[in-house]
């Protein structure tokens, strides 16, 4: 996505009468405009109510028509449906309470820092506190943004060692910088809402491109380019001249990564870790540094075309793999990874980097992984037996790789646009929610 869509969405902002505030007062919580106040949440609340969970031992308490939720259900600014549904009896015979719509839900036990506006009447679990807002004093959506901007304050008042929680009295005393004019609060909500809408649109564009990429990978790795005849193979239908090939037939060597004591970390060369494997590629982003000798670099170094496979991780992530791109530079890789060097006369590393992003690859590897407690492990032998659908010519492999590479470049631009919008949002939150920049209202 280019900047066109988001710039159109943000153009409304430029029509608003924004101005820079110069008249501030100093408060214990910092500088705010003279006509603002650091207002305790309880000053704009009619009530703060707790929640609970109806007993699952009584089936009659559940599957009714009353929406109910935990803090895990908060994913964004608004709540529009229940996580589960309870009966009237479940509501009446448990500690849960119903929060009328257009109020505030604050996570005060699990997921502290989460906040949302409920657009429906909803019962809440013990993880949440419902804040019933006096609408003559505060706009619920403004309070959402104000709390979100001050979530570190919220986390700071949590108590407890194992599971931290916030007492309702302490939540009520949380102070937030606020314009006293509700119209100005709503104007701030309007500007931030425009940016949020642009981010949501960018999110949808990214998701659409990701779906298109997955569909293209599935088509290209099962039908190839320009083939009309197919044959049935152990891994499904493939073009007639393609060969299902075990990795042991195209891998020249394997090498487990380097392990060194912590005193050698923090300086030296990048050391590829599991989080540096993204979408079939290896990156330098936040790569750990490791001090290595020339001999260790020779043994555990990487070069363009190497495949790095994560061999120890959770069952969902084990086997993640990516190719070292051209120009990567000197680097090593950690012991939880395996380096594969391919026979590049038989398989293109770029083509292989596409295959490792497919469910066909991950399903094969997971069926071979050894799982203990919360971790899964794959070995060189497990990798050896994975079957790859292999076009017979490097030229076809490369054409397929180029098509997916174009999709990856499109995705990169779209994600960068989303990141740009998120930076704009953070900047606007800082300016508008502290009163550094104001909006003139009638």
Overall helicity: 25-40%
- Report low-confidence residues grouped into runs of 5 or more: 1-14
Distance between the termini: 37 Å
CATH architecture of the domain at 243-390: Alpha-Beta Complex
| SS summary, helix count | 11
Shape: elongated
**CATH fold descriptor of the domain at 243-390:** Adenine-n6-DNA-methyltransferase TaqI, Chain A, domain 2
CATH H level of the domain at 243-390: which superfamily? DNA methylase specificity domains
Q: Given the helix and strand composition, which structural class is it? A: alpha+beta
Mean pLDDT metric:
93
In spatial order, strands of the major sheet run 5-13-10-11-7
Structural Rg: 28 Å
Sheet with the most strands, sense and barrel status: 5 strands, mixed
Strand portion? 25-35%
| CATH class value of the domain at 243-390 | Alpha Beta
Strand runs, count: 31
Explain what the structure shows.
It is built from eleven helices and 31 strands. Strand 15 (230-233) and strand 16 form a beta hairpin. It has a five-stranded mixed sheet, covered by helices on one side. Strands 8-6-12-9 form a four-stranded mixed sheet. Strands 18-27-23-25 form a four-stranded antiparallel sheet, with helices on one face. With 442 residues, the chain is an alpha+beta fold. Helix 8 (349-355) packs across helix 11 (394-432). Among the domains are: 36-179, Adenine-n6-DNA-methyltransferase TaqI, Chain A, domain 2 (Alpha-Beta Complex), CATH 3.90.220.20; 243-390, DNA methylase specificity domains (Adenine-n6-DNA-methyltransferase TaqI, Chain A, domain 2, Alpha-Beta Complex). The protein is 33% helix and 28% strand. The radius of gyration is 28 Å and the shape is elongated.
């Amino acid at each position: 996505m280019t900047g066109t869509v988001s710039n159109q969405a943000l153009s409304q902002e430029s029509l608003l009468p924004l101005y820079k505030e110069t008249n501030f007062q100093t408060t214990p919580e910092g500088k705010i405009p003279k006509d603002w106040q650091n207002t305790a949440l309880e000053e704009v609340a009619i009530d703060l109510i707790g929640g609970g969970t109806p007993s699952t031992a009584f089936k009659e308490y559940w599957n009714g028509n009353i929406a109910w939720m935990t803090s895990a259900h908060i994913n964004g600014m608004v709540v529009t449906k229940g996580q589960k549904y309870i009966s009237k009896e479940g509501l009446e015979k448990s500690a849960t309470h119903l929060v009328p719509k257009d109020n505030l839900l604050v996570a005060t036990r699990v997921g502290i820092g989460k906040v949302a506006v409920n657009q429906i009447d909803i019962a809440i679990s013990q993880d949440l506190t419902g804040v019933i807002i006096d609408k003559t004093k505060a706009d619920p959506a403004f309070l959402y943004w104000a709390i979100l901007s001050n979530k570190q304050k919220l986390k700071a008042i949590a108590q407890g060692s194992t599971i931290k929680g916030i007492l309702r009295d302490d939540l009520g005393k949380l102070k937030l910088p606020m314009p006293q004019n509700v119209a100005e609060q709503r104007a701030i909500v309007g500007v931030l809402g425009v940016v949020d809408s642009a981010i949501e649109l960018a999110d949808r564009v990214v998701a659409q491109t990701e779906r298109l990429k997955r569909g293209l990978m599935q088509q290209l790795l099962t039908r190839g380019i320009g083939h009309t005849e197919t044959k049935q193979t152990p891994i499904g239908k493939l073009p007639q001249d393609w060969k299902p090939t075990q990795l042991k037939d195209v891998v020249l060597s394997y090498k487990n990564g380097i392990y060194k004591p912590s005193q050698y970390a923090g300086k030296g060369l990048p050391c590829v870790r599991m989080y540096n494997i993204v979408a079939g590629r290896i990156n330098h982003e936040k790569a750990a540094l490791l001090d290595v000798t020339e001999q260790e670099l020779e043994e555990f170094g990487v070069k363009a075309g190497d495949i790095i496979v994560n061999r120890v991780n959770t069952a969902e992530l084990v086997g993640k793999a990516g190719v070292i791109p051209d120009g990567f530079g000197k680097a090593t890789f950690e012991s939880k990874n395996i380096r594969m060097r391919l026979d590049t006369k038989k398989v293109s590393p770029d083509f292989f980097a596409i295959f490792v992003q497919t469910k066909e690859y991950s399903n094969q590897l997971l069926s071979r992984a050894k799982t203990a407690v919360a971790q899964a492990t794959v070995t060189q032998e497990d990798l050896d037996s994975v079957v790859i659908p292999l076009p017979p010519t490097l030229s076809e492999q490369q054409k397929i790789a180029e098509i997916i590479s174009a999709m990856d470049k499109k995705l990169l631009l779209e994600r960068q646009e989303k990141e740009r919008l998120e930076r704009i949002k953070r900047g606007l939150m800082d300016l508008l929610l502290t009163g550094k920049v104001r909006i003139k209202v009638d």
